[in-house]
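Teaching assistant here, posting this on the class forum so everyone can see the example we discussed in section. The complex has two components, and the goal was to see what a joint structure prediction looks like when all of them are supplied at once.
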Amino acid sequence: MAIVAQILSARRRILAVLAGGFCGTLLRVMLSSLIQGWLGKAWPSDILLINITGAFLLAFISTIADATLLIGPTRRLFINVGLLGAYTTFSSLALGDVLLITAGRLLSALLYLLVSSLGGIVAVLVGNLLGDWYVNTSKRLLWARTIQRLTSLGTDVTQPAPLNNRVLRKKILCTNCQTILPSYANFCGLCGVKLEKSYQNMVNT
Amino acid sequence: MGLSLLQLGLVALAGATGALTRYLLGRFIAERVRSQIPLGTWLINVSGAFLIGLIAGLVGHRVISPALQLVLATGFLGGYTTFSTMQWEGTQLIRTGSVAYSLLYLAGTYALGIPLAALGMILGRWL
């Protein structure tokens, strides 16, 4: 989050969170009434389902965002902080639990709490695992596709890539003994000094 | 639940405001308080729980209309508090090896949030 703050302007960050919060709240309200239509209002299954799915998605997306460039800082603010943050809710959970307690359904209240908290942890862990799996699979696929493409172009992938002409033509000057050496050399073959790869020492031949 | 488009828009707008409040307050606290436990999210969730109880109590007292409750509680407080970030942070604490902190954080949120919601409700009815 600290890095995000340095890259993005305040206006961009605020807009991303606002837009995400708008969509997340809309999603929660509509899904909540939909689930209540199916399962009834006796037990707060709507908030439970919303919270668990939200926790899963947050873990899944955060894992992918940490490992790849698919989700940049703005998208992360929009999805994680705005959308999923507003989609899930703790206050309705607490109120729902208090309402169960005041209705005298203590066992239901306890069950609601346990399923929410433990289910939330399990959802995060599953989201983490699936995110890792997604990242590894896509990396493997990308690698396989690159090899395939190189092979189809006639490159022998078992051999190291040859140095191209531009690298071979460039020379480097040894600052110690003034010998001109190939630019890919790291040490001077004559005096053994480590070569400084700066532009001043590069010689075009 | 027959919600008009205007109501739905107002609720979503309140939710967006809540999300922004959470983001700004969370950053404000994170910049000032160095702690292993994410105190920002903790404070946000606990205070949101108290406020939703207070609003529910006031509705029972007919100070706040159910339509306003929808905007304030479901909209603003729903966007303000968060479950996903809390569980994510709690699980990250387990992964980094501080199981005790994770338990303290998660249990601390539930154990304080629910009594505070009840307290808010009692206070709202009493007011």
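For the discussion questions: The longest helix of chain B spans residues 5-32. The two ends of chain B are 29 Å apart (CA to CA). Think about how each of these relates to the inputs above.
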